[in-house]
Amino acid sequence: MRRPSRTEAAGPSELAGVASAEAALSALPGPAAPVAEFPVPGDVRAAAFFDLDNTIMQGAAIFHLGRGLYKRKFFRKRELLRFAWQQAYFRLIGDEHAGHMQDAQDSALSIVRGHRVSELTAIAEEVYDENLAGRMWPGTRALAQAHLDAGQRVWLVTAAPVEMATIIARRLGLTGALGTVAESVAGAYTGRLVGEPLHGPAKAAAVRALAEAEHLDLARCAAYSDSANDIPMLSLVGHPYAINPDSRLRAHARRHGWRLRDYRTGRKTIRVGVPAAAGAGAAVGGAFAALALQRRRR
């Protein structure tokens, strides 16, 4: 004769208890889904693109380059005073009238005209040691290093002069840099830009071209920036990060579910306004990027 099962032998109260327990157990979460490792080790079709100013380093690189060039008498005091006035004007008025910006660019390029590329590069190396090395955000450097440790390429993408950007990338152990390019002939600057300042949509275009040349899959790449001006670049990749973001980028990142990282502590970092940086950059003799930081308001 078959013995009744425990459930069959149980009374109504016990049956209710068993059902309750089973329901509770079924509601418990199963094993946690594994979190995908990022950056993905060995993914040769992935890379990372980092903005420079206020993303990897605190402040604007060309501002410090300008100070270094002035210290070495690369340009005259009256030129510094003129660009200091432009900086104050833009900071106080906030007007980026095309005529003012064009004047700044023309003046900037006239300063660099005739100077040797090797001269500017040598000064930029010294400026890195004197002013820039201690301004790198450790948190952002760690992110870049994570990509390198995963076997991925890491590029700086900045409106700063490509000579300065290349030095910074090399000193940080990165793969290379994209920056604003000044025309040179026989090793001397002509006072003209090659193409546009590497800013806003131009950055996105440069990253897209580099990705095509390097056979990268942008959906597997990452990009990092502090500025809403770089939304075109950030929107290209599958892993966009807002680093020390300005208010517009922070809002955009939250709306789109982008990752945010803020490595600033205490008082918020004082940002050199784009026009201000452009004015300082003009004074730097690397002034081919004077308008490189021109903010294109959207």
TrEMBL record:
InterPro entries the UniProt entry points to: HAD-like_SerB, HAD-like_sf, HAD_hydro_SerB1, HAD_sf
Any one Gene Ontology molecular-function term assigned to this protein's record: metal ion binding
Key words of the record: Hydrolase, Magnesium, Membrane, Metal-binding, Transmembrane, Transmembrane helix
Keyword presence, Transmembrane helix: yes
A UniProt-annotated Pfam family: HAD
Transmembrane segments: 272-293
Listed PANTHER family: PHOSPHOSERINE PHOSPHATASE, PHOSPHOSERINE PHOSPHATASE SERB1
Family classification: Belongs to the HAD-like hydrolase superfamily. SerB family.
Protein's UniProt name: HAD-superfamily subfamily IB hydrolase, TIGR01490
Organism of derivation: Streptomyces aidingensis
